[in-house]
């Protein structure tokens, strides 16, 4: 790729190859500077006075170089415009304030990165919404300042800054050069990848080089590693060969092994508030180096306050969702703006082409992102819900507790949250059947009939029609009288059985069935009083002798 660009500038094939070999072959800018510096030194003869200022003849490929690098030239007249000249036409966006050279090259080297990736915080001071972790007296900030990082697990919802904090820690350290940052994703990394990192960290640790770096290993989605992969971290964390920073959206208590948790500090990240998300969106709009302007080719762009408020309030605390929706809305808005054209004329010179006229057609126009653009980009409110994760259990717990507390309004709200999140209606119906016996029970035996009927209705209709069946059943159960006597009775009886109270002795003979003559001769069924024939008899015992007098149902 770099060689083809050098050839397109007019450099000879052998000279381009020499330049790439001399500069490492990764930077077109360094290769060009090497060629120009070489030509300048070759043009001087030994007889020339080094203090003189000769006027060497222009390079034969200088016109093409000028045209290739024309987009980096500084505009002389307002409005400030950067022009990339092509022979057939010129597409020239207007930039209100050109970014610095470093940020411009950085953005050009990663033109396809989404806005959320380009706007990652560089240091922990740029992280918003996690002050409880990054305040100046916090554990993590103190560890960063003292250059004594412990192994940590960052647990929080998506888009709250787990990866950003991990990457910013090294840049914020008092001695950033003392760390070797290695990043793995548990989604794509295998056992070999983990083993390679661990072995390399051990080699560095045992080396006698005083300047050896400490390995800081960041593992994204660490909960996806199996037990053996997590076990491989234990010895190297224990002896300090690596500092592990794991990021997970799942509850570490359920998905990470206990020995790993004992060697790491679990730090919980909070969902971002709308004000936090709004500050990130405004930062992306104002940043001309790597922000929103680069998403629309460097054009001047403004975002309405209504659009910022809408995105920050409807992303459910996920900054990644908000930033990517902002980028899409900006692209949508930019498509409405007429494309500016320029009339470019060239004249042939002895060694190539030079620009002699560049007249702009049309007036300067600013792209404005409106509320409608933001709504079109987001499509629907983002809901944090995982049918197999913690949020799934959080919401069903909220529904159950709201019905138990006889709050029909809250119950219907949590039901709606689950349905809008994509929950399977039959799962909810099964939970309602359980609730009808556990919390309503004998106070209203008809509740169980209602719950079973709701399950059948959901099975017959499916979503979205069965939403009203679920809502009716939820409201009925929430407003029904409550009794947990049956629920407590079965729990107490199971506890007695598990603890072998009464030694789990055999069934008393008078309660046993005697279908054969032999069993009757053994005393099965002897002394049993048939209640329909003796309704007033209350002397018969039904519990084992050791459990006489036990009360389970109150």
What is the mean pLDDT?
79
Q: Indicate the low-confidence ranges by residue numbers.
A: 43-59, 67-103, 340-363
> Can you give the helix content as a percent range?
40-55%
Radius of gyration: 36 Å
β-strand amount = 5-15%
Provide the structure class. Answer: alpha/beta
Number of strands: 10
User: Describe the biggest sheet?
Assistant: 5 strands, parallel
* C-alpha end-to-end distance: 82 Å
| Shape by Cα distribution | elongated
- The helix count comes to 25
Strand order of the largest sheet: 3-4-5-2-6
Organism: Vitis rotundifolia (Muscadine grape)
Family: Belongs to the AAA ATPase family. RarA/MGS1/WRNIP1 subfamily.
Region (Disordered): 35-65, 86-117
GO cellular component, one term: nucleus
Helix-strand blueprint:
Layout: H1 2-8, H2 13-23, H3 28-43, H4 62-68, E1 90-91, H5 101-109, H6 115-118, H7 131-134, H8 139-145, E2 152-155, H9 162-172, E3 179-185, H10 191-206, E4 214-220, H11 227-231, H12 234-238, E5 242-248, H13 252-255, H14 258-263, E6 265-268, H15 274-286, E7 301-303, H16 305-314, H17 319-334, E8 341-349, E9 352-361, E10 367-369, H18 371-378, H19 390-404, H20 408-420, H21 425-440, H22 446-461, H23 467-479, H24 485-498, H25 517-521
Parallel strand pairs: 2-5, 2-6, 3-4, 4-5, 7-10
Antiparallel strand pairs: 1-8, 8-9
